[in-house]
Write a structure and sequence with these properties.
This protein is α+β, with helices and mostly antiparallel strands and about 500 residues long. The chain is about 35% helix and about 20% strand. Strand 15 and strand 16 form a beta hairpin. Helix 10 runs antiparallel to helix 12. It is globular.
Amino acid sequence: MPQYIAALDQGTTSTRCIIFNRAGEIKVISQKDHQQIYPRPGWVEHNPLEIWDNAKYVLQESLQKGGLKAGDVAGLGITNQRETTIIWEKSTGKPVCPAIVWQDTRTDRFCDQLAKEGGQDRFREITGLPISTYFSGPKVNWILNHVEGASKKARQGDLLFGTIDSWLVWNLTGGPQGGKHVTDVTNASRTMLMNLETLSWDRQILDVMGIPESMLPKIRSSSEIYGKTVTPFSGIPIAGILGDQQAALFGQTCFDQGEAKNTYGTGCFLLLNTGEKPIISKSGLITTIGYQVGGQEPAYALEGSIAIAGALVQWLRDNIGMIDKSSEVEDLAKEVKDNGGVYFVPAFSGLYAPYWRSDARGVIVGLTRYVEKAHMARAALEATAYQTSEILEAMEKDAGVSLKHLKVDGGMVVNELLMQFQADILDVPVIRPTITETTSSGAAYAAGLALGFWDDLSTLRKKWKEDKRWTPSMSAERRQQLIHSWNKAVKRSFGWVEEAD
């Protein structure tokens, strides 16, 4: 009997395969980075074929590193960077253009046009989402209207659209030779094309966007068998699909209404389980699907999305040369006792929740001759905590709950200075689990449930264990002072991009 479950985790900067045993423990990890392409200001692209090659590579290498055969793996779960958009030829599997990444802002004019005709919230009651360059639907529209011949081929039924999960499943299950064209409810809920209540594509919005429904994948639950792998090895059931942040919610076992997690990665994403009924935000948050297990009712969530979190540390490393390795930022920030009055608003792609300002751009304020690079490093880390605080405040307004603690995961949670500052600014404990690869574990859990590898949600909850807890130690007066200054800094970022630009 197979003793392992694999998770294919396709993220913004890399692709990983993590293999888990029945105890939910990691046996082996394989990872491979892919190129980040910035052809113009505001444009962010990936090569879909490179991502597919990397997926095959990490799947094969993980088995080799673990001394395993395909038959030792009971199933595969997939989790992915959401909203990143690929359109490809059905007959060949060839993408018509590079993948447009979730951070990309090239659709700003189309989004402005949509908003002028019906307001930024014209689709919110249906989709749970504001009109924004963040989501996939406008990206599909852009490709159909800017790639030569794409619109005609789409109308003829020759093109397929998918987020990264659909692209991988289609290729893994045969590609042009019978590949399954599917997505799950969590990824579909990020397109701005799906009706949150019916869990189906909304034809009215498709018409507004100019998108033929024949391009779209079939919407399925997050935990069921979609098909079996054909390549790079055959016969492994693909049985779980979750967008990366919903996968982290699932991996953190936030199965009860009112439980929340925050993932600190390239961006930062805070999700709150709101139960079986969607709450349409009045505070600038996203209403989304948290997960759906088989034929059960879906769990809905409120989400606050921050575009730039760990990416700001990467920017300090790669663009500015302030540090040689991302891990050095904490030691540098510890050289000073506070931020020296500096606030860094990383609105490189505009601001997401709760502002949704595509006209914003990054600003550094409060500079004096006193400031040195350690203050800049500290301000960069604190920016993530401040943005998280804004989102949590909005969630408490919308959902009427007061969070008792916040579960955290992602690459930045090893930064203890950030975690303590996060607890101080939120004024609630911050808890890190023993396994911080919760995105991958969530995908593995979803696949394992569908296959009977694990029995039920309560079985999964027992696998979650606390590693470390940070408790607030900042005075209320100091907290309010810092948040007041942060709010002033955010306002300085507004309105930088004008329509003429």
